[in-house]
Amino acid sequence: MASSFKSPADTAKACVGVAALKEKAPLSNLIVLSFLAGAYIAFGGLLAEVATGGMAAAGWPTGLVKLVFGGVFPVGLMLVVIAGSELFTGNCMYMPMGILQGEASVMGTIKNWVGSWVFNLVGALFVAYVLAYLTGILTAEPWAATAVTIAKTKALGGAQFIAAGKTVTSLSWMQVFWRAIGCNWLVCLAVYLAVASDDVIGKIFGIWFPIMAFVCIGFEHVVANMFFIPVGIFIGGVTWSQFFINNMIPATLGNIVGGAIFVGCIYWFTYLRGTNKAKA
Fold this sequence. Notes:
Helix content: over 70%
Mean pLDDT: 95
Number of helices: 12
Distance between the termini: 33 Å
CATH architecture: Up-down Bundle
Number of strands: 2
Strand content: under 5%
Largest sheet: 2 strands, antiparallel
Number of domains: 1
CATH superfamily: Glycerol uptake facilitator protein
Low-confidence stretches: none
């Protein structure tokens, strides 16, 4: 009976194959698929805010609110992986593995990372402005207060603000960076598990647990924040400069470290080191 999943070594080989395809992909595909990935992750963020809006104010325990938020958010990565699209954070794992195995180039990686980051932002902004703000879904209470609080927590750079009658301290630049490392370590493990599975149900379970974990823990995902913080900007309370300086920069750098080093490089070193020489 054939197995429905790949071994860790075969999964690493499959990830290199994905990197090789991304290296050769035309720019038009990269643009369109990156837009979709940003929108898909934003769908997960929108669902999470709708599902938990007002729960904290109603007295729900903080841990339970986080669990509900994390429990519904993974739909975004399920769409990314199963339907197919270009997500910057997943590419932080794929492309370094391709470089190390000789199947991708540094310039190809730069093109992939820059293109996916920029058009992930475009897709996330589209959902944030058109589907969350213009529709009024997140502008009415209690969802507006939840959306603004999340945005301020992520983008005010360590400043304090009042939320639900309490003083809250936002994340500092370094806190965002460290949390972003943990985030993309788990996100890329979710992608790795999805690649390992050869059936859709296996991919769903492989994605759900690590993504639920990173969201519930409170780690920082740069593409998710491309939705969460602009919603707060559109409603009011956060500025574009705070968005980019206090969150986008440290979250991007941390996500690169988490995905490239802790997943991509480690699994290449463990399972594929030396095999490219044998192939040559």
